[in-house]
Amino acid sequence: MIIRNGTIITWTEPNQLLEGHEILVQDCAIVSIEPQGVLTKRYPEEEVLDAQGQLIMPGNICAHTHFYGAFSRGMAIPGEPAENFQQILEKLWWKLDKALDEEGTRYSALTLLIDAIKYGTTTIIDHHASPNFIDGSLDVVYEAVRQSGLRSALCYEVTDRDGPERALAGINENSRFISRVEAGEIDPMVKAHFGLHASLTVSAATLAKCVEANGNRVGFHVHAAEGTVDQEDSLAKYGKRVIERFWDEHILSDRSILAHGVHVSDDEIRLLAESQSWLTHQPRSNMNNAVGVAPVEKLLESGVNLCMGNDGFSNAMWQEWFFAYLLQKDHKGDPRAMNGYDVIKIAVENNSRLATQIWDGMRVGKIEPGAAADIIFVDYHAITPMTAGNLPWHILFGFRDGMVTMTMAGGKVLMKDRQLLFLDEVEIAARSREVAAQSWARVAEM
Ligand SMILES: [Zn+2]
Predict the structure, then answer these.
(1) Dist. CA 27–CA 411, nearest whole Å
(2) 161 CA distance to ligand 1 centroid (A)?
(3) According to the model, what pLDDT value does residue 77 have?
(4) How many angstroms does the Cα of residue 30 sit away from the middle of ligand 1?
(5) Quick one: how far is CA 293 from the chain centroid?
(6) What kind of architecture, by CATH, is found in domain 60-358?
(7) pLDDT, position 89
(8) Beta carbons of 390 and 36 less than 8 angstroms apart
(9) What fold characterizes domain 2-58+374-420?
(10) What are the boundaries of each domain within the chain?
(11) pLDDT in tens, 108-140
């Protein structure tokens, strides 16, 4: 396929805006980029995808999400409103995930995958929990991802909060799915991590079992220092802070993802940088849970691999970028805080490096020869001069997620002219409403 007739944003370093070029995509990768006319002349038989003057850019990447959170939308939480993060976990998330059965797991995933395709997010790193449907749950999420055609890395959140039997079931679910990936039974668009819920819900014994079961096959994916309660718990039980505990237990590595890091000490920042672990930032979730503000600029200056996730919020990643941009300024009372380039460093460059590591060196998140063909069209017509240099501010202040008109992942067009090609949105939403109502009824009974 040849993609032509648009302005290409490459997200290479340095970033480039290419006018009058065309892209050759073969199988799952970008093969070459040449001046307009060269490829169409060289490969007259190739199908042509005309961007009609739109922007052509790499799909967005989300470094931490929860498909299982979809049914929280519009849900009334029984009882008194939660006063703090611990209560939010207990009153909302630890009930909603228990309410998910096989069908709930499937439709939670499908609905957020549709959201991702429509909003141009082509790579999603998920952290799954469904304590009453653990065995085989990753296969159900996997089938939904495969139906969608997107790129995704999956894991199951191991936790002790529901007793030793389910902790063990979580360990086995991760291990089983990792083995399937290793055996080549899984589409190469899908990879695995070993999931852990968070320090505060994983005991020393369970953590040791996870390390053993993983056997260094993949990186871990875990929440870390999201609320102060995580640090208080770790200090009380282990006499050390969360990141220090994870360092001592061999959880940190250049393959592991730690979500949040809102409350980290200088020593913990040093350990994150030294281990080259990936730390993800989710400002919308942090603001919604009122857990505090991550020290983003300090993390970047210290050499931490800081990435951008959405923690189960909509896969409209440009919204997440904008909150990240605004939050630091407001928090610090300094409009110079969080430059547009810092947002790009986190959400584009570091997310791309993370995805490239997960997909075994296949470059994800760039338009250049050899990179994965994960591409979107954006119907944005700049009203002021737009260059590679000021592009971050055009995105932050001008791009809206509904401007995405075409989404391609792994060389396959998943949405064209805003029409989904493989998923029936109306039918899936209708079924999702039924399944969500059943889940809500179970939550109300808990
Ligand atoms: Zn999360």
Answers:
(1) 6
(2) 16
(3) 84
(4) 32
(5) 19
(6) Alpha-Beta Barrel (3.20)
(7) 86
(8) no
(9) Urease, subunit C; domain 1 (2.30.40)
(10) 2-58+374-420, 60-358
(11) 999 999 999 999 999 999 999 999 999 999 999
Distance 66 CA to ligand 1 centre (A): 6
Tokens standing for residue 92: 């909302």
User: Which neighbouring-strand residues pair with 49?
Assistant: 3
What is the maximal distance between C-alpha atoms in the chain?
Answer: 69
Q: Indicate the angle between helix axes 102-118 and 137-148, nearest 10 degrees.
A: 30
Tell how far the Cα of 1 is from the centroid of ligand 1, in angstroms. Answer: 37
In 175-309, which ranges are E strands?
A: 190-192, 194-198, 220-224, 257-260, 278-281, 305-308
For residues 212 and 195, give the distance between their C-alpha atoms in angstroms, rounded to a whole number.
Answer: 13
Q: What is the pLDDT of residue 92?
A: 87
Tell me how far CA of residue 40 lies from CA of 33, 49, 134, 281, 339, in angstroms.
11, 11, 50, 42, 40
In single-letter form, the type of residue at position 37 comes to G
Among 65, 127, 60, 154, smallest CA distance to 364 is for: 60
Over residues 229-241, mean pLDDT: 97
For residue 64, the CA-to-ligand 1 centroid distance in Å is 6
Percent of the chain with pLDDT over 90: 95
**Domains 2-58+374-420 and 60-358 agree in fold:** no
Rounded to whole angstroms, the Cα distance separating 290 from 274 reads: 29
What distance in angstroms lies between residue 403's CA and the mean position of ligand 1's atoms?
27
Residue 262 neighbours by CB under 8 Å, 6+ apart: 225, 226, 227, 286, 291, 292, 293, 294
Gap from CA of 226 to ligand 1 centroid (Å): 9
Ligand 1 centroid – CA 352 distance (Å):
20
Query: In the numeric block, which tokens belong to residue 174?
Result: 């991760």
